[in-house]
Amino acid sequence: MSMTLLAQPLTSEAFAPFGDVLEARGVPDRIINRRRCGRFHDRARLDFGTDGRAGISVFQGEPVAWPVEIALVERHPEGSQAFVSMSGHPFLVVVAPDEGGAPGMPCAFIAAPGQGVNFHRGTWHGVLTPLHAPGLFAVVDRIGDGPNLEEHWFEAPYLVEPEKESAEMGSASAP
User: Fold this and answer.
1) Can you give the pTM of this predicted structure?
2) How confident is the model at residue 171 (pLDDT cuts 50, 70, 90)?
3) Fold held by 3-162
4) Where are the domains of the chain?
5) How far, in Å, CA of 70 to CA of 96, rounded?
């Protein structure tokens, strides 16, 4: 039997225990490039441990449709990981607090167009979950030797549906 989670809009405040929301919100920290560009400076705490380096990969995930089944979460004990949509479409973000080395009760967010996320090192999170094609993402994470992936399968999957206010923004297109 599965439990249902409601995906709420992604906000910096609600997501803070798990990581950083990447977005151009508010007034730019700096104006650069001959005053043609606002820089929203240093928006994520990147952490790649002592023996890793930052790498940027491009992922192409298959879009999902509501309700979304979440049976697996993962975490990266040696480094942070950021998901940035290259298509500008909303995507589903699932995170869970750590409770003694295992994920606690997950919560779900819908990243709006123009938002990305950076999961702090060791944060339990769902896999890349695009809601629209082409599902193209830049992923910034640790490149280095040694294992950096732990997976946890839930005894029963969770079903995620959008909150009423989020349903229109995050409605999935057919894969």
Assistant:
1) 0.88
2) low
3) Jelly Rolls (2.60.120)
4) 3-162
5) 12
